[in-house]
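tool_call: predict_structure(chain=1)
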Amino acid sequence: MFSRPRSYWKLILYVILTLVCFVLQSVPAFGVRFLGCAPSLLLLLAVGIAFFESPAFAAWFGLIAGVLSQLTTSTLVGSDAILFMFAGYILGVLLETIFQRKFIVYLFAALAITLLQQIAAYLAHLLLFERLPLGSAIIHQILPTFFFTGLFAFPIYWILWRFDLKLRAKEELE
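tool_result:
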């Protein structure tokens, strides 16, 4: 998964970041809303973990983040967990083979997965329940979530990058 000396600090960091993102995403009192929509902070965190860890760890983390995200959304049970898990694993494999670990790749991957999540949730609700017309759903749900998630992409990536850089430097000194 990851090297032993920095693994404990990374796990503690990931748990703290996961809890902070979960609270910010799920509690409306904190005011992290745009047009009534919350950003997918746990998705951004799961995609960010795929950039700094192995595909297997990213998949497990994506599964846990997806389960937590599922607690705050009204999508099909397990859909976020499966989406986050596969996104973490596939992105981790693509980063090891094809893509470079750059912020622009992170941003495009996070936004593409967010868009996929929102469209899949709309289609699932359309099939199972009565849902808003497509135009109204795009304007009131999909686009605000898409853009608001994009705004939070840089801070989450920067936090993960800085801690990874700091822990790698400590590891090299030891």
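agent: The chain has one domain: 4-27+34-173. Proceeding to next step.
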